[in-house]
Write a structure and sequence with these properties.
Helix content: 40-55%
Number of helices: 14
Largest sheet: 7 strands, parallel
Radius of gyration: 21 Å
């Protein structure tokens, strides 16, 4: 196992599994793969007291938390706040003494803490941008996100020694916020955990937080027409969030309860892909959705909106179907087409799997992230020698 010069890495994220978002899955996977590459890894997250974190069972990862309040239901977007973390983060730095802090998401509270403490602590700051343009997010959540982006996010970016972007679209956002040192490293998938299992049934899968930003309301609008055309189809919706009660009520009111099942947290998410023949996530804002990549690796063709980094991975009618956001009619037509045409669906499935295997494995991503760390280490060494 290789040992690295900048070998103490502290990963920061407001949420971690069992929370069901893509960012938290990426952070947990990165922690495990960095340990395998010889890094000493710490993870810092916020705890609202509602969950037991998966990583606490990993003896190779130093795990730290601070108590927090989850504001997601209040503003409609993932959001945590913690007064105690303002002090406790300093204690964690003294205990773990990281060479590099790797923050995730320009909207996370922990990212702001990492940037704030970089004013007086001796570490390099790397920030990953997982989300693209937020212009289509409406309501109080959109106002809050745009205000936060132009203030706190700009500060986080300004303090970052390197900004990693999950797509070229996310990189353009980073540049607009003042980033000068950026690189694109796309999300990755464990292609052994997520592998094709042929499914003959017509089964649709949605995975994601139940928020308007993920387009769940548009999918629900499309489902009655899909189920009228294919009454033998079934739908699995996996996720939690502020719209959960609305989702369940819409399903009841539209008379599709017999065909649609809403799941909360699912311990083995790969099992959901094993029973699906089509995946749909009609988001309004993304970076590069991990669930879409997992579906592709599992041989489940994605029906997704052509936003942010999605078209950089999904080629329309080759590895999936691309739609305009906010168009339930397009969702309905696309899902019906794939349920109508098994040959076309399987062609998309095979192409999607091949693309992920050839381009987006965790081994490839970990090496690229490690290269960033080592480059920062060399820069720090050269700067010290020239001082």
């Amino acid at each position: 196992m290789a040992r690295h010069s900048s070998r103490r890495i502290l990963l920061c994220a407001d949420y971690l599994p069992p929370s069901d978002g893509g960012v938290e899955q990426v952070v947990q996977k990165l922690a495990v793969h960095l340990v395998a590459e010889g890094y000493e890894v710490g993870v810092f997250t916020l705890d609202d007291g509602s969950r037991e974190f998966d990583l606490t069972d990993n003896p190779d990862v130093s795990f730290y938390t601070a108590s927090a309040i989850d504001l997601t239901d209040t503003i409609g977007l993932q959001s945590m706040f913690s007064l105690s973390a303002l002090r406790e983060f300093g204690d964690i730095l003294e205990t773990f003494q990281p060479d590099i802090i790797h923050a995730h998401n320009r909207f996370f509270y922990t990212s702001a803490l990492a940037a704030l403490y970089s004013l007086r602590a001796d570490y390099k700051l790397v920030t990953t941008l997982h989300l693209g343009d937020i212009g289509m997010i409406s309501g109080i959540g959109g106002v809050a996100a745009r205000t936060f982006e132009q203030t706190v996010s700009r500060f986080v970016i300004s303090r970052s020694d390197q900004v990693i972007c999950v797509s070229a679209a996310a990189e353009s956002i980073a540049r607009s916020l003042g980033a000068t040192r950026t690189t694109v490293i796309r999300n990755a998938v464990d292609v052994e955990e997520f592998a094709p299992l042929p499914v003959e049934e017509k089964s649709l899968l949605y995975i994601g937080r139940l928020v308007r930003n993920n387009g769940i309301q548009d999918l629900l609008s499309a489902l009655p027409g899909v189920l009228e055309a294919h009454p033998d189809a079934t739908v699995d919706i996996v996720g939690s969030g502020p719209l959960k009660a609305d989702v369940q009520e819409t399903i009841r009111q539209t008379g599709i309860s017999d065909a649609v099942t809403v799941h909360d947290y699912v311990p083995d998410i790969s099992a959901m892909y094993d029973r699906a023949s089509v995946f749909c996530r009609p988001s309004y804002s993304e970076g590069l959705p991990l669930t879409m990549l997992e579906a592709m690796a599992s041989g489940v063709p994605p029906v997704v909106t052509a936003i942010a980094g999605v078209p950089e991975v999904v080629t329309d009618r080759e590895t999936g179907l691309l739609l305009e956001p906010g168009r339930p009619d397009e969702i309905e037509a696309a899902l019906i087409e794939l349920f109508d045409d098994d040959v076309f669906r399987m062609e998309l499935a095979d192409n999607a799997r091949d693309y992920v295997v050839n381009n987006l494995t965790w081994e490839q991503r970990t090496q690229k992230v490690s290269d960033v760390y080592q480059r920062l280490s060399r820069d720090a060494t050269n700067s010290y020698r020239s001082a």
